[in-house]
Amino acid sequence: MRIAMIGAGYVGLVSGACFADFGHSVCCVDKDPAKIEALEQGRIPIFEPGLAELVATNVREGRLSFATDLSQAVQSAEAVFIAVGTPSRRGDGHADLSYVYQAAREIAAAMDGYTVVVTKSTVPVGTGDEVERIIREARPDADFAVVSNPEFLREGAAIADFKRPDRIVIGTEDERAEAVMNEIYRPLYLNQAPILAMCRRAAELTKYAANAFLATKITFINEIANLCEQVGADVQDVARGIGLDNRIGSKFLHAGPGYGGSCFPKDTLALIKTAQDFEAPIRIVETVAAVNDQRKRAMGRKVIAACGGSVRGKTVAVLGLTFKPNTDDMREAPSLDIIRTLQDAGAKIRAYDPEGMEAAKGMLQDVEYARDAYDCAKDAHALAIVTEWNMFRALDLERLKKSMAEPVIADLRNIYRAEEVRRRGFTYVSVGRV
Question: Are residues 203 and 191 in the same domain?
């Protein structure tokens, strides 16, 4: 099928490349000329394992192309996906839908013949209704349907998630549109990926509800970790003990410095605002968001406590800046609040991350960036592990100890065994363990 993907950011580029790999003809459209030029030259603007190879293969095979002008791509497309950003709106926390609505206006002007317009962006309940109104107002004669098809991609594992999804959610009550969507996803039938058809508003809400629930699991285990520290229990034992219950599951039960990234913070906030607008407040999610915000700075205070209560004039080495491994995404990363807390307490910061340092430079001030983990730790009074990149899981502890000014490790991801690190002569603190 012929597909136009409006937006060549994280969701749009991954989705477009995967659809092309299914055999569809896909044109990814973006208003940023520099981004399109880079893509045409084979340079990928984001870090996602396997994406560069996937894009290159499908460009070479003629199934994937890029453009800045959407008119031709939309005119020839049977399905047009809207995959633009929906950041939190400044001032009130609602999702900023201006990019979605602008895309709808431009699609309306360009489409020709029956067209399925698909919102892939994460949008609040009722957005599809407004997209439909915008198009209908601009083109009363148009033959089209608006579908909600939310994405459920994990950064760092997006290609696998797209090709082997837990489920595909299609929000429409238009039979022709549902048939088009089924044809687009037909290559996944062999994987027996369940396709869930529902009304458009239910599909829109499903995305927010899923992210809010996962954020709640993370926050729950972080709260349990606090209790474990007070009563002398190990949160990893507790997490295993409850995670083996198949009603609960083990995923997202890893205690740490809180959630970040491009999805959970803005989506929980947007859900909170939507629920308040409809006079159906979701108190659990309100608490989750508040606790998570407090959690990040609390992790900074944990590092300070590990240093004897003061870091003034001391150097703290921070390993890991991105909100999770296998991405270069710094949005809402816990490291930002942790570092600022340490700086407020008088610490000097030296940091290292294999992918996130360029983005971090625009978000943090007065941070020295290192060449690698050992360069980062040199002469430091404490080492804080903030993101659990694989390269940090087997550091040479003897080498670290010799190079550091003081042997202090604050492991905020629990990637080391406490007894092993302490046996090497380190002061060691972790999360939810004593």
Answer: no
Domain boundary among 179, 198, 217: 198
Return the sign of the alpha-carbon dihedral for residues 165, 80, 201, 172: negative
What pLDDT sits at residue 423? 97
Number of domains in the chain: 2
Greatest alpha-carbon pair distance for the chain in Å reads 76
CA distance 333 to 218: 15
Question: Closest by alpha carbon to 180, among 166, 189, 170?
Answer: 170
Task: List CB contacts of 109: < 8 A, sequence separation 6 or more.
Answer: 71, 138, 139
The beta strand positions in 109-164, using DSSP E, are 115-119, 144-148
CATH number at residue 105: 3.40.50.720
What residue ranges in 176-314 does DSSP mark as E strands? 195-198
CA–CA distance from 270 to each of 87, 122, 261, 308 (Å)?
Answer: 9, 10, 15, 40
For range 270-281, the mean pLDDT: 95
Q: Mean pLDDT over all residues of the chain? A: 96
From the list 324, 279, 434, 321, the residue with the least C-alpha distance to 49 is: 324
Residues 247 and 281 in one domain: yes
Q: Which of 260, 378, 406, 265 is nearest to 323 (CA)?
A: 260
* pLDDT value of residue 192: 82
263 among known catalytic residues: yes
Alpha-carbon torsion 7, 11, 17, 20, what sign? negative
Express the helix, strand and coil content of the chain in percent, nearest 5 each: 45, 15, 40
- In this structure, are residues 148 and 110 in contact, taking their beta carbons and an 8 Å threshold? no
In this predicted model, what pLDDT tens digit does every residue of 330-361 receive, in sequence order? 999 999 999 999 999 999 999 999 999 999 99
pTM of this structure:
0.93
pLDDT at 31: 95
Query: Hey, what are 148's tokens?
Result: 């909600």
Phi-psi region of 196 (alpha: psi -120 to 50; beta: other; left: phi over 0): beta
Tell me which of 228, 263, 307, 376 is the catalytic residue: 263
Q: 234 Cβ partners below 8 Å, 6+ apart?
A: 228, 432, 433, 434
Three-state DSSP state, 389: coil
Domain that holds residue 254: 199-434
If one counts every other C-beta atom within 10 angstroms of the C-beta of residue 59, the result is 17
- The CA dihedral of 32, 34, 35, 40, to the nearest 10 degrees, is 130
